[in-house]
Specification:
The complex is a heterodimer of chains A (about 400) and B (about 475).
Chain A (H helix, E strand, L loop, with lengths): L9 H13 L9 H32 L4 H26 L1 H16 L4 H34 L19 H48 L15 H56 L4 H41 L7 H14 L6 E2 L3 E2 L2 H24 L1
Antiparallel strand pairs in A: 1-2
Chain B lengths: L8 H5 L1 H10 L12 H31 L4 H36 L11 H37 L5 E5 L6 E5 L16 H45 L1 H9 L8 H4 L1 E2 L6 E2 L15 H4 L33 H54 L7 H39 L8 H15 L14 H21 L1
Antiparallel strand pairs in B: 1-2, 3-4
Classes of the chains: A mainly alpha (about 400), B mainly alpha (about 475).
Chain lengths: ~400, ~475
């Protein structure tokens, strides 16, 4: 049984492999009774990395209710695990739909043969790889900072345990457990976010390829001696245009599927990020002593902003590329085509005027504008929180 | 000293601007006639010396700001000055790092297509663009000189002091400072004597050159936009005769002979048989009718470019057009579309080159304007403080307004092409004419705009939001006092 999930996109294959190892990406060649075992393994992983911690944190939150600095210290990781849990549920329920999207995109991208097309796919891969690297390094730095900045005797994350965790062997074990679960949970979070954003990136890569084929509709036809296309040339161009239109339809369907699969987790993620960014900023401002902790909180803040940013950036790219189809169609020498063929081209142009967009739960579109709006909203919440704290 | 350098396209039009930028110390080393090693070295030395002087003085100002950062008013005033001149440093660096991109944009219009029926209109709008670009350049140069002059003049009014916070009593005291245009830390004592005159001269030079560096780059950006807008005007102007030409291909028209004439006024262009641009009627050589050095994507290969006849030597044209006239009509459409695509390429290139610089400009201007709004609440009468705050404010807003207005014009021009396409008599036209109008309308619905690295669009909306934010901030602060 193959461990690594193969895909034309390197970051996607890494993320899917991680998910497979934890139990959330059923291997293809598994028998049915094994699949049930696999699902149980998935449930166990979920409880270990996210479930137990969420429950203990919630109990702890009720205990310290009313004390704002302590509450913010607890909330900034609780919120993350809530979003995390939503994503897990989503993946569990919609696994088949997501698999369909992954395999169909992969098939299309594998079948590209010409040089320019390959260059486009290459640059898309590079972009997602850089994104993954930045995400990994930010997470690594924040975890390192978080775990090394605690004094001996206290744990990295406040939590309620049914036993006394300050005594000697229990303390070391709990510490090790927290660090381990933290690392793996962060890795899983990265993998799920990368999976969603890379699928969106592959969508806009496919749109770019369609744009390329529209630009080169009259490619290597002998054009310099004519002002209009001959009948034979028209047939050829019509066939090429037909293929472009079919692929365009497929990509737009995929974008709708992506919207259905990922809209709710993105919405939860955005809400949580909004609260967490303002809470982390508040923590950052009220924390003075520990420099390492300060830096790790700063990196954590950057991490949370980056998480929102990648969704907004990829969504923005998708919308931008989908409206670029029209401009790409304009770039071919359409004035050489007969009116009949021009009308076919026109229908493609008209459709691409309505952009393909991904929304977060139907409320906001993923775009750089909504990213700026989220940052501004967090900042307002942060100033409000400061005012409330100063009054107390 | 310098022989006339052979240039084409945008470089010819923008030569005064380029020469001024070279004089101001930008790292612009192309477009000289004499490219020998010695003169190149001299030019590089010249630019580096300017760059070093400008950066050193800027660092001195920053040191001064750090030194006297205890007192809030002093700190705010120094921060505003430092941010104000950050534009110049950033633009100098930006050009040095991005010069290839600038050269590429300047070279975009080197090879442009032409058509015998439309050369006169092309030349007219090109001349218009040239006039507007020159006028803008003179205007901005005048404003820069005026700004420097008023800055130097205002130095001699008011008290030449700086504010210090007395740590024990927590009051602000004043301490005498050199009467110089800018507050900066110098390693020598600039209070009086020869060192004072040296520092004064240095600062006047510095003011002039740093403002020139920032403004000249903005002027170049706006000149590109003016050029693109005038090209779009040209395309709109030739839309009507183009539609009539296209309609004459398969619909009966009474005065088709008029269409093939080119004159100096109006829509009709007379194309005489004796004009050297027109080949013999029997010579159906496409190169004589439609000339372009580099037909975008379609190259004129050998074999003389002879016309390929499709088995029918005579056309079933209701107007009895000769084959040559039919070629002229069809190639007119090709000219229009290819020229429009060329303009789209130019605008895309401008956006790629200057977008990031605009983003930095807007970021710094936002912070500066916020601080200036705070300073403006402390104006208590007609004095030096009031004049200098208002001066800073109007200059910063003016800079933002400068590129917003041209960006807005581009948006308006490019979306009005669709209206021009609709307003000609398409209902009398051929199927070809109608599909031409359809495709052009589709394409021009989305306006061409310049964006600041995709974060914002340069338009008057941007300026209005900036101005609105400043006014709101000012009002809120006044209330809080």
């Amino acid at each position: 049984m193959n461990i690594i999930v193969k895909n034309t996109n390197f970051s996607l294959s890494i993320s899917l492999t991680v998910l497979k190892l934890v139990g959330f990406w059923t291997p293809e060649d598994m028998q049915d009774n094994h699949k049930l075992l696999y699902k149980c393994y998935a449930f166990f992983s979920f409880m270990l990395y996210v479930g137990i911690y969420t429950i203990t944190q919630t109990v702890d939150l009720f205990i310290i209710w009313g004390n704002i600095p302590l509450m913010t210290a607890a909330m900034y990781l609780l919120g993350t695990s809530c979003a995390h849990a939503t994503k897990f549920f989503n993946l569990f329920i919609r696994e088949n739909m997501i698999k369909k999207i992954v395999y169909s995109s992969d098939e299309v991208l594998r079948s590209v043969e010409d040089k320019d097309g390959k260059a486009i796919i290459e640059s898309c891969n590079r972009q997602t790889w850089i994104q993954l690297l930045i995400y990994y390094s930010l997470t690594l730095i924040s975890i390192l900072g978080l775990t090394t900045s605690v004094e001996y005797g206290s744990l990295p994350m406040r939590s309620w345990y049914p036993y006394d965790e300050t005594k000697s062997p229990a303390y070391e074990l709990t510490f090790a457990l927290q660090v381990y679960t933290l690392c793996v949970a962060a890795l899983l979070n990265i993998s799920k976010d990368t999976m969603a954003t890379t699928l969106i990136a592959q969508c806009h890569c496919r749109l770019k390829l369609i744009g390329l084929s529209l630009k080169t509709l009259c490619h290597d036809l002998d054009l310099d001696k004519t002002v209009m296309l001959s009948a034979g040339q028209e047939e050829l161009v019509r066939a090429r245009l037909r293929n472009c239109a079919i692929e365009h339809q497929t990509v737009l369907e995929t974008a709708v599927l992506l919207q259905n699969c990922f809209s709710e987790p993105i919405f939860v993620q955005f809400n949580v990020s909004l609260v967490i960014i303002c809470v982390t900023a508040f923590q950052l401002v009220s924390l003075t002593g520990n420099i390492v902790r300060l830096m790790s909180m700063g990196t954590y803040l950057a991490n949370m902003m980056f998480q929102v940013f990648i969704y907004c950036y990829q969504g923005n790219q998708l919308s931008h590329e989908s409206s670029d189809i029209s401009s790409a169609a304009y770039l071919c020498p359409w004035y050489m085509m007969s009116p009949k063929l021009r009308r076919d081209l026109l229908i493609v142009m008209i459709r691409s005027r309505r952009i393909a967009k991904i929304t977060a739960g139907g409320f906001t579109t993923l775009s750089l504008d909504s990213f700026m709006a989220i940052i501004k909203a967090s900042y307002s919440l942060f100033t409000l929180l400061k005012q409330v704290d100063e009054k107390n | 000293m310098m022989t006339k350098v052979k240039t084409q396209g945008l470089v010819t039009d923008l030569m005064p601007n380029i020469k001024l930028m070279q004089a101001a110390g930008h790292f612009l080393f192309n477009y000289h006639s004499d490219n020998s090693g010695m003169s190149m070295l001299l030019r590089k030395v010249y630019s580096s010396v300017h760059a070093v002087l400008i950066v050193v003085n800027y660092v001195c100002m920053a040191v001064n700001m750090a030194q006297y950062s205890d007192e809030v008013n002093e700190l705010t005033a120094n921060t505003i000055t430092v941010l104000f001149f950050a534009h110049s440093i950033i633009k100098l660096l930006f050009f040095a790092l991005n010069s290839k991109s600038f050269y590429r944009t300047l070279a975009v219009w080197n090879q442009s297509n032409s058509h015998p029926l439309f050369t006169e209109s092309d030349a007219r709008y090109h001349q218009l663009a040239l006039t507007k670009m020159r006028r803008l350049l003179y205007c901005i140069c005048g404003v820069t000189v005026l700004a420097v002059a008023s800055w130097v003049t205002i130095t001699f009014f008011g008290e030449s002091v700086r504010f210090i916070a007395n740590k024990e009593t927590n009051e602000t005291m004043t301490e005498p400072a050199p009467r110089l245009p800018l507050k900066a830390w110098y390693p020598f004592n600039a209070m009086g004597g020869t060192m004072y005159i040296v520092a004064f001269a240095l600062q006047v030079y510095w003011l002039l050159f740093s403002m020139a560096i920032a403004n000249l780059m903005d002027v170049m950006f706006c000149s590109w936009l003016i050029f693109a807008c005038e090209q779009l005007q040209h395309l709109k102007a030739i839309m009507k005769p183009l539609m009539e030409l296209s309609a004459s291909l398969d619909t009966y028209r009474p005065n088709t002979a008029e269409l093939f004439r080119a004159s100096s006024t109006g829509y009709n262009f007379i194309l005489t048989e004796k004009s050297e641009k027109v080949p013999e009627p029997t010579d159906l050589d496409i190169r004589g009718i439609y000339s372009t050095q580099q037909d975008f994507g379609i190259t004129l290969r050998g074999a003389g470019g002879r016309l390929q006849t499709f088995g029918q030597p005579t056309t079933n044209n209701p107007n009895g057009l000769t084959q040559k006239q039919e070629m002229l009509a069809r190639s007119a459409i090709k000219y229009w579309v290819e020229r429009h695509k060329h303009v789209v390429r130019l605008v895309a290139s401008i956006g790629d080159t200057y977008g990031t610089a605009l983003l930095f400009h807007m970021l710094i201007s936002t912070i500066t304007l916020t601080l200036l709004a705070y300073q403006a609440t402390k104006i208590d009468g007609v004095n030096v403080y009031a004049f200098s705050t208002l001066g800073y404010l109007s200059y910063t807003l003016g800079q933002v307004f400068h590129f917003c207005i041209f960006g807005n014009r581009l948006i308006e021009e490019s979306s009005s092409v669709m209206e021009a396409a609709y307003s000609c008599q398409w209902y009398d036209g051929s199927e070809e004419a109608k599909t031409f109008v359809q495709i052009v309308c589709q394409q021009c619905q989305k306006a061409m705009s310049i964006s600041g690295a995709k974060f914002f669009t340069v338009s008057l909306d941007l300026f209005a939001s900036v101005l609105g934010a400043v006014v709101t901030y000012f009002m809120v602060l006044v209330q809080l006092k």
